[in-house]
Design brief:
Strand content: 15-25%
Number of strands: 12
Bound molecules: arginine
Order of helices and strands: HHEEEHEHEHEEEHEHEHEEHH
Strand order of the largest sheet: 4-1-5-12-6
Structural class: alpha/beta
Length: 279
């Protein structure tokens, strides 16, 4: 956590200055005599300079199965990413619309264009993904964790080798960093991908898997809220950076999003969001 804080503080320190430069650039490229305030960004958004899928709206690809970042409650999208997307849209003078996609389809959808403007879904900046999309500045840093049922005493904080055996199944969400971690570290086990992150926990509870590998903040939340008979047995400090995925063809949107993120860092909104959802 202190790592997160210091990074954000660092970004915040020069964010105001960098933001002014970014906005000045934005205003002049639009050719107007706009003031170097957030009004410049919102005007660019309204005039369609951001190449949005749907005019006046920021359309967000999200997989709402990843609390506290992305979830569905009583038919409503909730979570840190959901609030962040709304705040980003506000800064750009846009409405927000969420599009429910399976996680492993989000980066391809952003890359293909025409469906969503941004992917915001606890997406870790990864070299393979950077070949397909651009990433904004990061807004959160997470780790991995291993979750097992509490009565599974063969796996401990010091020794998870029982999971690296034939006949063991590790549940992961398809296409995630958790899937790569499980494959790399438990090559003798079967890594079973599920489309939906929450299905991994249900599968483990039903005895179809012996462990779940997911991001730390999510594993902790799932165990605290829904799967109290399970526990986070091991945390792995991967320091994964979560960021918004943007089409490689849309530099205007990338800089507008980065500018809005800086504003949300500078005005304390991002810290407040992290506090609200992660304590
Ligand atoms: N951080 C991980 C990744 O990028 C998992 C993200 C899963 N997100 C979700 N909304 N289900 O691979």
């Amino acid at each position: 956590m202190s790592k997160n804080m210091s990074r954000r503080e660092f970004v915040g320190a020069f964010g105001a200055f960098a933001g002014m430069i970014a906005l000045a650039g934005c205003g002049s490229s639009a050719g107007g005599n706009k003031a170097a305030t957030s009004a410049a960004a919102s005007t660019a958004a309204e005039t369609g300079d951001l190449g949005l899928v749907s005019a006046g709206k920021l359309t967000i690809g999200v997989s709402p199965d990843f609390p506290p970042f992305d979830n569905m409650e009583n038919g409503n999208y909730v979570g840190l990413d959901i609030d962040l997307a709304k705040d980003l849209a506000d800064k750009l003078g846009l409405e927000v619309e969420y599009k429910n996609l399976q996680f492993d389809a989000i980066v391809p959808a952003v890359a293909a264009g025409g469906q969503v403007d941004l992917g915001i879904s606890g997406i870790t900046v990864e070299p393979d993904r950077e070949k397909q999309v651009n990433f904004s500045d990061s807004y959160y840093i997470d780790d991995q964790c291993i979750v097992v049922m509490k009565d599974n005493t063969s796996v401990t904080a010091d020794d998870q080798s029982a999971l690296n055996a034939a006949g063991v199944t590790i549940a992961v969400q398809s296409g995630t960093t958790g899937e790569s971690y499980a494959k790399e570290n438990f090559p003798n086990a079967t890594t079973q991908p599920y489309g939906n992150a929450t299905d991994c926990f249900a599968a483990m509870q039903a005895g179809q898997a012996q462990a779940v590998v997911t991001n730390k903040a999510v594993g902790k939340q799932m165990v605290a809220d829904a799967y109290t008979d399970a526990q986070v047995v091991k945390e792995i400090a991967t320091g994964e950076e979560y960021a918004c995925a943007v089409s490689k063809d849309n530099d205007a949107l990338l800089s507008a999003v980065n500018d809005a993120i800086k504003q949300l860092q500078d005005d304390g909104t991002l810290d407040a969001l992290v506090k609200k959802y992660l304590g």
